[in-house]
Amino acid sequence: MQFCIRDDDTSFFTSPEELEHVYGEATQWGPVSLAVVPFHRAGMSKGVPKKFRGRWSVHPLHHNEALVDYLRKGVSTGRFEIMLHGYYHDEPDGRPEFIAGSDLECRVADGRKYLEDLLRTTIRVFVPPRNMVGKPALRAIASQGLHLGGTAGVRCGWSLLSVRTWRLWSQLHEWRRRGGAGVPWILDLGDHREIVGNAVTPEALLQCNEAIFESTLAAGGVFCAATHYWEHGAPSLHPGGPTVGEHLERLISRVVSDSRIVWRSVGDAVSDGPRAT
Q1: Under 8 Å between Cβ of 80 and 4
Q2: Based on the structure, what is the number of domains in the chain?
Q3: Helix, strand, coil shares, percent, the chain, to 5
Q4: Which terminal residue of the chain, N or C, has fewer Cβ atoms less than 10 Å from its own Cβ?
């Protein structure tokens, strides 16, 4: 089985100390893939500090020099992978950027080049803000040769005229009919691939993720834990549940104790991990 961590919302508003506190120990075991916002609007997202929320000013990543230096070093030493997380992230009208935004292909192309040049890296994966995409966004992602961190599915962008769409749908239906949990494979749509993120958030149940983890292990698939550094200390919304950080640590402990599991970046996993086609 392959395992990876996807962390969303690194931006101008992030401090190196926050990332180091959450991932300093974890990156001794394997890389963490950070979904980075190039030009974060100070909107209403929880990852925006309260003193900035609602200003709607635009904050380019390069204005946080300490963070840029930290990320460059982390990338060069293999601790971090950089993914593209939208362009502005927040829209003033409150709608998801890659559902309702305009000029999506330009945003993907320009955001990718900006981060690649700034952080001296190569970006292979796009993660949509709020995990929401539509057909125009999928076209924009595919046009830039990127893969999707998350999944669109039949309702949110897969072509209803594609044989590949219905083959994937059939495979997933059969997997669940046989008692499989989650989605244990990379989904290959032809022009791009998608990797499902298993949420590690206050709303997520540890027992549910453990069941998906074991099911994925049995299938020899890929398990991607999707979380936010800024929720690390947040308590579970379920009575008796662990904090978000404790939840992630439980999964990491399971990974490092089992020689059958390989820790990879999201980009490596989506590029050549086990696929449903």
Answers
A1: no
A2: 1
A3: 40, 20, 40
A4: C
In sequence order, the β-bridge partners of residue 81 are 33
CATH number at residue 163: 3.20.20.370
Q: Is the distance from CB of 123 to CB of 155 less than 8 angstroms?
A: no
pLDDT tens-place string over residues 191-249: 999 999 999 999 999 999 999 999 999 999 999 999 999 999 999 999 999 999 999 99
Angle (CA) 86 209 148, round 5°: 25
| Largest separation between any pair of C-alpha atoms in the chain | 51
Could you report the per-residue pLDDT of 163-193, keeping only the tens digit for each? Answer: 889 999 999 999 999 999 999 999 999 999 9
- To the question of pTM greater than 0.85 for the whole model, the response is yes
Domain assignment of residue 49, given as a range? 2-276
Residues, the chain: 277
